[in-house]
Amino acid sequence: MEDNKRKTAVVDENEIAKQRKFCEKVASVVSKRYGEKPLACVITYGCQQNVADSERIKGMLKEMGYGFTENRFEAKLIVFNTCAVREHAEDRVFGNIGTLKSYKQENRDVLIACCGCMMQQQHIADRIKQSFPFVDLVFGTHVVHRLPELLFNSLTRKKRVFEIPDMDGAIAEGVPVLRDNDRKAWLPIMYGCNNFCSYCIVPYVRGRERSREAADIIREARELIADGYKEITLLGQNVNSYGKDLAPKVTFAELLQRINELDGDFRIRFMTSHPKDCTKELIETMARCDKIAKHLHLPFQSGNDRVLKAMNRHYNRAKYLELINYAKELMGDDIAFTSDIIVGFPGETYEEFKDTLSLVDEVKFTSLFTFIFSPRKGTPAAEMPDPVSHEEKTKWFKELTDLQEKISAENMKKYDGRSFKCFVYGKGKLGDNYVASRTDGNLIIEFEGDESLIGTFQKIKVIEPLTYVLRGERERN
Predict the structure, then answer these.
(1) CB 267 within 8 Å of CB 232
(2) CA distances from 472 to 133, 185, 255, 344, 463 (A)
């Protein structure tokens, strides 16, 4: 008999109510301290999940009486929401925090806070404590919902506040959200990861996989649709694992089907999928459901089986291609593929890297997110022998990007003259009077049009294929 006891911890409603009380307390404190509505600047690094977290941080800050600015030097509260996936991101964070030292010295009433994945690592928190004494508040990924309480403590006590509990995390419902966009929404469906790829720090800083209840997700999706949102992107470190901790279990494909059945004119996207857990059921659901974008972001990281095993990815090249070919069989040219690739994993040889090149050439990805291996302290890969120089890896990297550029240019040609229903998401780059839109298959088409079209669906005909973008024209009814 299936165990009907939920395996994931959920933040108690009383705790959420307690944080609402702290919102009121903070609002009172900042009103007395600043005499006017203080401004907060929230600076976000990293993935879409971090962006979604920042939207919740801003939602709570709004409840606490803050307004918002993108200029950190006019803010009374500066929040760095950090990313730990690559060394470059960490260096940027430290550099940007450092630039605030003199600003803080001249403005003693300013508070500086750091949160996100970097802060969940003890050695990073220790560095902040020792090298950046002007940072007032540091908190980890598992206590974002407690920001009102932590900020109140930081405002009313003379000592710095560090809150980085060593735990697996919990689901916190009822946290207010202030979204960055009024037509495109991020909708987290789960948090954490159980995969422990040997190069990845995410399971250590985000905790174990934990899924939101399907009813809560459906309710939020329905509210977004009612509010006029046209693109809803479901988020998780591994959305294919959704529901494994629920009782009774709900598969990701089942969740997609239920959202697809909601009334309204909208499009569903999702990321990120892990090939290990990607199922034929998911691909069949994508093919069947008219509101699910025909775009599959499926990171393969390496095309060589030995390297994949060293990465602890739990699939091989043949399994990956089986999924790709099944999607092509069901959706044909309608399906678009994107992926992530790590170049120069420790111990990878050039001959093994060539297997990655051949896989890219076989699949014909729309676009790729490519990275040279970046060691993360605390992961197994960081301790592996790595004899290939960064200079050599850079040559491999260029070979890969050159290949993908050629493939992208060839891919684009087949769309010449075709028409697509597109979501117009922002200003274009081809000219001052251009706006940018995205097809169901994640292709970008820019066309001449007024900014009033942003946030709407339009039918666009391709009139010129370029390398990474298509130029189009709007079709009138």
Answers:
(1) yes
(2) 53, 25, 34, 38, 5
| Chain centre to alpha carbon of residue 445 | 23
Beta bridge partners of 211: 190
The pLDDT score that the predictor gives to residue 8 is 72
Which helix (H) or strand (E) element contains residue 213? none
Sign of the dihedral through C-alpha 45, 49, 51, 57:
negative
CA distance 175 to 167: 20
Q: Which of 340, 327, 230 is nearest to 283 (CA)?
A: 327
| Long-range contacts formed by 218-222: CB under 8 A, 24+ apart | 218/258, 218/259, 218/262, 220/187, 221/187, 221/259, 221/262, 222/262
Rounded Cα–Cα distance for residues 232 and 283 (Å): 19
- Please report, as a single letter, which amino acid is at residue 247: A
CA distance 476 to 301: 42
- Strands 161-163 vs 137-139: parallel, antiparallel or unpaired: parallel
b/e sequence 387-407, b meaning 16+ C-beta within 10 Å: ebeeeebeebbebbeebbeeb
Query: Please, what's the largest Cα pairwise distance for the chain?
Result: 66
Q: Count CB neighbours of 454 within 10 A.
A: 19
Percent of the chain with pLDDT over 70: 98
Whether the ω angle into residue 248 lies within 30 degrees of 0, i.e. cis, is yes
Give the model's pLDDT for residue 79. Answer: 98
Distances in whole angstroms, Cα of residue 243 to Cα of each of 7, 8, 190, 253: 10, 10, 8, 10
The CA-based angle 129-133-139, given to 5 degrees, is 50
CB 445 within 8 A of CB 462: yes
Residues in the chain: 477
Give which of 409, 418, 407 is closest to 469, Cα–Cα: 409
The strand pair at 444-448 and 457-465 is best described as unpaired
Q: Are 408 and 366 in contact (CB under 8 A)?
A: yes
For the chain, what is the total number of helices (H) and then of strands (E)?
A: 14, 19
Dist. CA 270–CA 187, nearest whole Å: 9
Q: Is pTM beyond 0.85 here?
A: yes
pLDDT given at position 476: 82
| Token pair for 207 | 């905790």
Q: What is the pLDDT of residues 203-234, one digit of tens each?
A: 999 999 999 999 999 999 999 999 999 999 99
Instruction: Please state whether beta strands 367-372 and 336-343 pair in parallel, antiparallel, or not at all (unpaired).
Output: parallel
Grouped pLDDT means (10 residues each) for the chain, 477 residues: 61 95 97 93 95 98 97 97 90 94 95 96 95 96 96 94 88 96 95 95 93 97 97 96 93 98 97 94 97 97 98 98 98 94 98 98 96 95 96 98 95 94 95 95 94 95 93 89
Tokens for 8, please give them.
């994931």
